Structure formats: structure tokens, C-alpha cells
Amino acid sequence: MAKTSAVEKNKRRRNTVANQSAKRAALKAIIMNQSLSIEERFKATLKLASLPRDGSKTRIRNRCEVSGRPRAYYRKLRMSRIALRELGNLGKVPGVVKSSW
């Protein structure tokens, strides 16, 4: 089980990304616009740099919904391999059957 603080920090980051995404997208559009003057683009770069770092989407860490584990994460199921195995053995994940041959 992951530390509760790490899981909560990631949740805060998700909220920050959701709140800041429109601002960041607008500033990035200004920065990438070649028709604007260099001064305007530089001001937009400074504004983007002044926004919180946790507002960037790359700061989000994929974590297991069940255990909070950050590694061996299956995106489709939103859980780690260990949690998938445990819940699969209990029959709580639809379509997952323990193999035997």
C-alpha cells in the first residue's frame, strides 16, 4: 500500500491540472504563434513559467486505484498488476480467469 500522502499529492496535482489546463493551453498557443512579435511571445513564456509546476500534465503519476502503487500500472484497468491478480483470483474483475494448463 502506498503512502497516503503520495496518493493525496497526486490527487491535488490532478485538480491543479484540471484548473490550469485552459490557461496553459492559451499561453502555449501564443508562444507557438510565429506571427506574433518576439516580445509578446516572451511575455507569454514568462507567464507560463510563473504558473504552478503541478499544473503541468506531465507531473501526474499513474497510480493504482486500489492500492496506490505507482509501478506496474495497467492503464486500461487503472490498477497495478498485484491488485489485478488479487481481485482476479477472487473473481471480482470481469473477464479475468486464472489460467491453468
Automatic annotation (TrEMBL):
Protein origin, superkingdom: Bacteria
Family: Belongs to the universal ribosomal protein uS14 family.
GO terms classed as biological process: translation
Database matches in SUPFAM superfamilies: Glucocorticoid receptor-like (DNA-binding domain)
Record has Ribosomal protein as a keyword: yes
Subunit structure: Part of the 30S ribosomal subunit. Contacts proteins S3 and S10.
Keywords for this protein: Ribonucleoprotein, Ribosomal protein, RNA-binding, rRNA-binding
Gene coding for it: rpsN
Pfam families: Ribosomal_S14 (PF00253)
Gene3D superfamilies: 1.10.287.1480
One Gene Ontology cellular component annotation held by this UniProt entry: cytoplasm
Spans annotated as Disordered: 1-20
The name this protein goes by in its record: Small ribosomal subunit protein uS14
InterPro entries in the cross-refs: Ribosomal_uS14 (IPR001209), Ribosomal_uS14_bac/plastid (IPR023036), Ribosomal_uS14_CS (IPR018271)
Keyword rRNA-binding: yes
Record GO terms (molecular function): rRNA binding; structural constituent of ribosome
Function, in words: Binds 16S rRNA, required for the assembly of 30S particles and may also be responsible for determining the conformation of the 16S rRNA at the A site.
Organism encoding this protein: Rhizobium jaguaris
